[in-house]
Design goal:
- The protein is built from 10 helices and 15 strands.
- The radius of gyration is 20 Å and the shape is globular.
- It is an alpha/beta fold and 340 residues long.
- The chain has 2 domains: 4-126 and 289-308, Rossmann fold (3-Layer(aba) Sandwich), CATH 3.40.50; 127-285 and 316-334, Dihydrodipicolinate Reductase, domain 2, CATH 3.30.360.10.
- It has helices at 13-23, 38-47, 59-63, 80-89, 104-117, 131-141, 166-169, 178-194, 289-302, 310-329; strands at residues 4-9, 28-34, 54-56, 70-73, 93-96, 121-123, 148-156, 198-206, 217-224, 229-235, 243-250, 253-256, 259-262, 272-273, 333-334.
Length: 340
């Protein structure tokens, strides 16, 4: 069995979840931990019980470590593209925390670097490994809802000073927008369930709590490549517990979160509810990173591309950027934004 040396760069909340997930796969060994602050890297190594991991205060030094085969990028949002390019140039496979880039220019540069290096990537839309997502995908594949003509997903997560990354997330430079900062999970889910790229976006944004340098709540209406439509919303302003709402309307049935109404059950008079683990928490400890990290190692071992590699994630990011453009300029925006 091949073993892979894992490097972690960034020592925030999500980095510990990455390490714990790698530890569940016998092929992985965390060999290096890096942060701009040495004390942060050492704290993460201690708390994650990685006493043998080398400690680095620069990404270049970490990438120069010959034991590192895979890099997990856990830095603030505005560094993800820079770190991805560096890792690709060093020939490392990459787990990229979302968002992979903050704008079209960064997205293009990351894509080009990964293409040139031919390394494997996974962009961390980790909910693709949530059990409810698995159930929904299986129901769609089994024809339970038929052709989906309308899809809707919402990311509603009250984010304020309780969150350790709030000081940078609230800024336009590092947070970006309600969609770029985290609502991209909802946009990715739309594409994942529809298995279609988004080709046009119209969006509106509003300031709710006023805690951000950008509107904290945004909604987009989008058109898919097959002509069907979708809606996604993202709100950091909501005064409520975390909500991730999923509605899929098909010509033979409907899915609403973990409830299904389908032509395959004649005589059904109410939604059937499927008990499962829901995507109902913003706590990274709740996120299914184990499946995501093992998936990346599978792709490396089999020399296969991931269903959520950087190339796939381009359309999700473009839709988020397009939503911000549409809301600011009051017009629909067509995709793609990047040239091939």
């Amino acid at each position: 069995m091949a073993k892979y040396g894992i490097g972690i760069y960034g020592a925030g909340w999500v980095a510990g979840a990455h390490i714990n997930a790698y530890k569940h796969d016998p092929r992985a060994e965390v060999v290096a931990i890096g942060s701009r602050k040495e004390a942060s890297a050492r704290r993460l190594a201690r708390e994650s019980n990685c006493p043998d991991a080398s400690i680095h205060t620069s990404l270049d030094d970490l990438l120069a470590n010959p034991k590192v085969d895979v890099l997990s990028i856990c830095t603030p949002n505005d560094l993800h593209s820079h770190d991805t390019i560096k890792a690709a140039q060093a020939g490392k496979h990459i787990l990229i925390e979302k968002p992979a880039a903050m704008n079209v220019q960064e997205l293009r540069a990351s894509r080009d670097a990964v293409r040139k290096a031919k390394v494997k990537t996974v962009v961390s839309f980790v909910l693709r490994w949530n059990p409810l997502f698995d159930i929904i995908k299986r129901q769609i594949a089994a024809g339970a809802v038929g052709r989906i003509f309308y899809a809707e997903v919402d990311y509603w997560h009250e984010l304020s000073d309780w969150y350790g990354g709030f000081s940078w997330l609230k800024t336009k430079k590092q947070g970006g927008s309600a969609f770029v900062g985290a609502g991209c999970h909802a946009v990715d889910a739309l594409r994942y369930f529809k298995q279609q790229d988004i080709v046009e976006v119209t969006a509106y944004a509003v300031e709710g709590t006023g805690l951000y340098e950008y509107p904290g709540t945004s909604v987009m209406i989008c058109k898919f490549a097959d002509g069907t439509i979708g809606k996604a919303s993202s709100s950091f302003d909501i005064q409520s517990t975390y909500q991730f709402n999923i509605d899929l309307l098909g010509d033979k049935g409907t899915i609403r979160d973990n409830r299904i109404f389908t032509h395959q059950m004649p005589g059904q008079t109410e939604y059937a509810q499927i008990p499962t683990v829901m995507p109902n928490s913003g706590d990274v400890a709740h996120h299914p990173f184990n499946g995501e990290m093992s998936h990346l190692l599978d792709c490396i071992a089999k020399n296969e591309e991931s269903h959520v590699n950087l190339e796939d994630a381009i359309n999700t990011h473009e839709a988020c950027f397009a939503a911000d453009i549409s809301a600011a300029e009051g017009r629909p925006v067509k995709l793609p934004l990047l040239s091939s």
